[in-house]
Amino acid sequence: MKLLDSTAKGVYLITVTPFTDTGALDLPSTDRMVDFCLDKGVTGLTILGIMGEASKLSAEESLQYTQRVLARVDGRVPVIVGVSSPGFASMGELTRSVMDAGASGVMVAPPSTVRTDDQIAAYFDMVNETLGPQVPWCLQDHPVSTGVQMSTGVILRILKNSPICVMLKHEDWPGLAKLSAIRAASDKGELRRVSILTGNGGGLFLPEELTRGADGAMTGFAWPEMMVDVVAAHARGDVERAHDLFDAYLPLARYEQQAGIGLAVRKHLLQQRGVIASAFVRKPGPKLSPQDLADLDRLVRRQDARLRALG
User: Fold this and answer.
1) Which residues are annotated as a binding site?
2) Rounded mean pLDDT of 77-105?
3) Where does pyruvate bind (predicted)?
4) Domain boundaries in the chain?
């Protein structure tokens, strides 16, 4: 597996973790999900993220799932593994295991216990020490889930102090100004250029983020082809086409981003598409109401009609 580097671009899809109806890991669905993602043209995969229910997996399950994904991918695309943890022993152990299994790099978000810029910077100094000089990593900035506000200044400080941090997963909201400032710093030569992939609101600002200098997307959606096609259209200079495609998917993408039920929505839609066998979400997790299901049926029908009209 090729190691992650700062030239990464395209769509690194954040995957769900498939379970059976009884809550066990569903490895056959995992294989099917990997095949589905690759068939839709994703550039890479990111697993064991927040929407992958990483915090609900045991250490043994995390490694078993990672090994299954890597075996199915078989080196065709890079795979990034989330290893965020308040404790560095568990972070280091999981990192060594997944890198030995063939991962391309790891992703780390700050724990909720760090608050000031100095605390945040010191934490990531320890991340560098824990991962070592050979493991490329992605800095995840997702204050909605972590509760940690990383200013533009502290992100620049982390990147300057972390030569093996090759990617920023930009998920602050609102975050367009931050994205512009970080990209401007590298354009001016104040910072080495790193890959910036966006996951803001599940891609709800993707066209604008691409215009601001993002290299692609790292987020999840039950229609990964949306992100693939939008990023490709934007890259070839057809910005209006990128916006038209994005607009067609936006109502369903917005519905999927509801706090509380978003993961259940995504898993339901993936089950409907035949990707996973069960929409089971481990506790604590939401269940969809009959009204939710009716909303989704309507939105899918309208999306299909809009896409047919766009050709």
Assistant:
1) 218
2) 96
3) 218
4) 10-310
